[in-house]
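TA notes, week 10

Several of you asked for a full example with nothing omitted. So below is the full record: structure tokens for the whole chain, then the designed sequence directly under it. When grading your own attempts, check the secondary structure regions first.
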């Protein structure tokens, strides 16, 4: 294990095959170590690059600026003495936020490719544990793995991990939440690499995490030019298309759609076309329009509350007295 600032604090040291134990464990610790399932943090090589993505110029510039902290660390922290004002911040922490399907996860992978490093993707489900004390240990584990492989650490659904700490602790679960948040803060302060958080709900971040993030970068829904570029990229040249299908037409008819929506539209339209035979076994404009309409409707209705109250049971009807006066007449 490395000495100095990157050493895992002893109170969070964990025993694994090939790793030394921190010392004799209590009965409870031994039980948790035995029963708790080992978390498999897999380090992967990035396949997607910034050339594969359709991003606004401002997003690319903001990413480049954040990565300059890593590329020019010695100049910034030694020659220009930024270490005097931020002694523990040797790495770069980036938060990518915005509507679903705008390419946040793909952008995180492209950041790793730009740096020539592998990446380690972590979800809330991987680090959260039902065993007392295991969640903070899992947080330490993923940072240790990232250090060991010099990997970019990517946290998906980061709002679940970086949520606000609880000011009123009323049960052991509340205490565990606060401990986990504190451990995450400590690890971020002592990590020299690159961390990328992705989220659809940045408003749920604890303020202590907000100020530790170097760059907050919003990925917007694509405009007309970006949608045209997306359709051009996402219609494979091998996909048989009717001549009337063009990126220009589709870009005009897909306003409000994200890249992830367009992928789903192409997949569903191709699935409809492949069931046909003969000359009609091509993706027609009608196939794509049907799926665009279905996707637009789903964006309006699925996951959103209804625009007006719906009667689901007679018990939901307010008492008559609330709608009428004492004499039974309607109130004015």
């Amino acid at each position: 294990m490395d000495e100095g600032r990157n050493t895992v604090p002893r109170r969070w040291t964990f025993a694994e095959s090939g790793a030394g134990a921190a010392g004799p464990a209590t009965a409870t610790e031994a039980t948790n170590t035995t029963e708790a399932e080992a978390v498999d943090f897999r380090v992967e090589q990035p396949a997607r690059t910034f050339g594969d993505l359709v991003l606004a110029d401002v997003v690319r510039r903001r990413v480049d600026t954040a990565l300059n902290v890593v590329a020019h660390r010695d100049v910034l922290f030694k020659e220009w003495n930024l270490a005097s004002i931020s002694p523990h911040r040797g790495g770069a922490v980036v938060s990518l936020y915005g509507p679903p399907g705008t390419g946040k996860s793909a952008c995180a992978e492209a950041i790793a490719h730009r740096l020539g490093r592998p990446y380690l993707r972590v979800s809330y489900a991987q680090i959260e544990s039902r065993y007392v004390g295991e969640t903070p240990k899992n947080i330490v584990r993923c940072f240790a793995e990232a250090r060991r492989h010099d990997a970019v650490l990517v946290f998906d659904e980061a709002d679940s991990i970086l949520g606000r700490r609880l000011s009123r602790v009323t049960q052991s679960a509340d205490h565990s939440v606060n401990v986990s948040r504190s451990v995450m803060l400590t690890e971020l302060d002592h990590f020299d690499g690159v961390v990328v958080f992705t989220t659809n709900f940045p408003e749920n971040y604890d303020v202590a995490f907000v100020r530790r993030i170097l760059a907050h970068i919003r990925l917007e829904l694509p405009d007309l030019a970006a949608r045209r570029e997306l359709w051009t990229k996402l219609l494979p040249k091998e996909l048989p298309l009717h001549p009337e299908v063009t990126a220009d037409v589709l870009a005009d008819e897909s306003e409000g759609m994200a890249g992830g929506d367009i992928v789903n539209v192409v997949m569903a339209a191709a699935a409809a076309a492949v069931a046909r035979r003969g000359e009609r076994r091509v993706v027609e404009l009608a196939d794509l329009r049907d799926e665009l309409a279905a996707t637009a409707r789903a964006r309006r209705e699925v996951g959103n509350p209804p625009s007006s109250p719906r009667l689901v049971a007679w018990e939901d009807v307010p008492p008559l007295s609330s709608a009428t006066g004492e004499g039974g007449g309607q109130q004015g």
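The two ends are 77 Å apart (CA to CA). Use that as a sanity check on your answer.
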